[in-house]
TrEMBL record:
Protein name (database record): Nucleoside triphosphate pyrophosphohydrolase
Chain ranges of the NTP pyrophosphohydrolase MazG-like domain: 23-95
Organism: Deinococcus wulumuqiensis
Alphabetical list of SUPFAM superfamilies matching this protein: all-alpha NTP pyrophosphatases (SSF101386)
CDD domains: NTP-PPase_MazG_Nterm
TM regions (residue ranges): none
Biological-process GO terms, alphabetical: dATP catabolic process; dGTP catabolic process; dTTP catabolic process; dUTP catabolic process; response to stress; TTP catabolic process; UTP catabolic process
Molecular function GO terms recorded: nucleoside triphosphate diphosphatase activity
Amino acid sequence: MQELLTVMRRLRGPGGCPWDQEQTHETLRLYLLEEAAEAVDAVAQGPQALADELGDVLLQVAFHSVIAEGEGTFSYAEVERGIVDKLVRRHPHVFGQTQVSGSEEVVSNWQAIKAAERGGKPRSAADRVPAALGALAREAKTQKIAGTAKTGREGVAAALNAAPDSEGGVAEVLAAAVAWARGLGVDPEVALRAHTARTLAALPDEAR
């Protein structure tokens, strides 16, 4: 990681790359989203593809850290220290004396520790569902928080029969499809991304 940080400092420094020097946290937002999405896609493509894409995600971490370092707001060392401390703090069954019966209790303890870190202050639903998530992933997370029932394909059929031919109607059907996916234990965002990837792979190359 130190070598990557050194390269980024060189690119951002005097005599470096004009494009890299112009970037800010704000201008890099889209790239961070894109690289994370490409890493998700690479999981289905094999270990080497995943390794390559994770490198691009790591680049974004280094890029933001070097920008912040220059601004005097935070450093990569603080980023690393923060996540290490968080992992140790939220795994008392590994690094402490807490006993757990299984993964469900691990998740329950994790949520309790998160709440304690906020001083018990509740977070709004909007704070718990990142706006930058894909629409299907965001709907799935919202349904989970809201306690929306998981459904079968009959839920989608009912939504289709009741929905008007409008933007709102389409949204209702998509929400029903997400509830159906949740009922099947399928991640709707990942499923649609995989479907789109297959469609794209089957399309002919653009003529040059």
